[in-house]
Amino acid sequence: MDPISPLEQALHAARALVLADLVAGEVAQADVVSLVEDSVAQRRWWVEQWPDGADYVAGLVAQDVQDALLERYGRWPLCPVCGSGDPHALDVEPELGPNPHWVCSQAGVKVAAVGSLGRATGGMTSS
User: Which domain of life is it from (predicted)?
Assistant: First the structure.
């Protein structure tokens, strides 16, 4: 059996992290999981062109899925920090960098690492 390439490891990790956040928000229906798969397929090409970008794939997949969900369903994930005002989505920071995390830009706080929303929200619905 051949070892898994660093590219595939990064893609599988990105998929797992984003799926964990979708499960935590109880929005991991089949059509939403398909959005993750579409993003991973597109990002595979991107990382093949720029191998040094492998550390950035998780944040990019999270942003891709967030954008696709906004177009189809609405904002995700909703901010669990702000208790008043209009509901708003968390942002991924850095936009292009390693160790991506979800932040509330309105409150200026880091909420959770990508893949760890369940711990920050108690697994509550965030869509």
Answer: Bacteria
Confidence band, pLDDT 50/70/90 cuts, at residue 124: very low
Q: How far is CA 70 from CA 31, 60, 100, 110, 122, in A?
A: 14, 15, 19, 21, 23
Q: Is residue 1 part of a domain?
A: no
Please give the Cα distance from 43 to 73 (Å, whole number).
22
Domain range enclosing 28: 6-119
* Total domain count, the chain: 1
How far apart, in whole angstroms, are the C-alpha atoms of residue 113 and residue 121?
12
Token representation of residue 126? 């965030």
Token pair listed for 127? 């869509």
Which residues have C-beta within 8 Å of that of residue 68, sequence separation ≥ 6? 35, 38, 39
Q: Is residue 127 part of a domain?
A: no
